[in-house]
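Data availability excerpt. The first of two example chains:
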Amino acid sequence: MIARLENTRLQSGQVLEAIRHWERFVRDPAHRLYDPRYTGCGIWECCPPMVEVQAILHIVVHNLPRRDSRRLQAQLDRINECWRWRPPYA
């Protein structure tokens, strides 16, 4: 199902990349404060815009079958717990 979403709405590999970017951002003790207005340097591999990363994750969570959606949301909840931050769509 993720492959279908990547083929129709996103780019190939973008979901895993978004999860990795979000996890790296949250777990890095030196991460900047989350500011949705900050768009980064424009290079996804360097400092991706977190609003876009969250949008990708939101699309996936809400378009997967219920069981898979719950599993992905549980993984994201574990990541978010490191920061004790709730995404705006929750």
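And the second chain:
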Amino acid sequence: MAKIDLEKYQKIYPSLPEEIKKILDDPKFGEEIFNFCEEQKISQYAGEIVDELFLVLTGFLPPEDFRQKINSILPPEKAKTVFYFIFRTILYPILPAIEKLYAIKIEFKSTLPSSTEISKPKVTDKYREPIE
């Protein structure tokens, strides 16, 4: 896990987007994650997860690498749950600011099938009316 020294942080902070500054200045930053990790019975990893999220928010760890870091810290099922929680509650609301910070376009891919992948039932039903 990489750490940022105070000098680097003070140098980068003024150039961060306002939405990210607001999160970093919030005294409750990380509290949601700690509480969620406690609920998931992985509280021993909460500090490391918050540190990695801090690196993402300050521009030192790209969002795509953040997911890999979470996967290396936690068991696969817990990693997926924690990543989706962080993405949904912290990263998604400030997605334009993160895209601006990294000068990239982030696409979140759902694991749900699209409407074109859902097949029609193959059973014929004598009570069903034909669709015209």
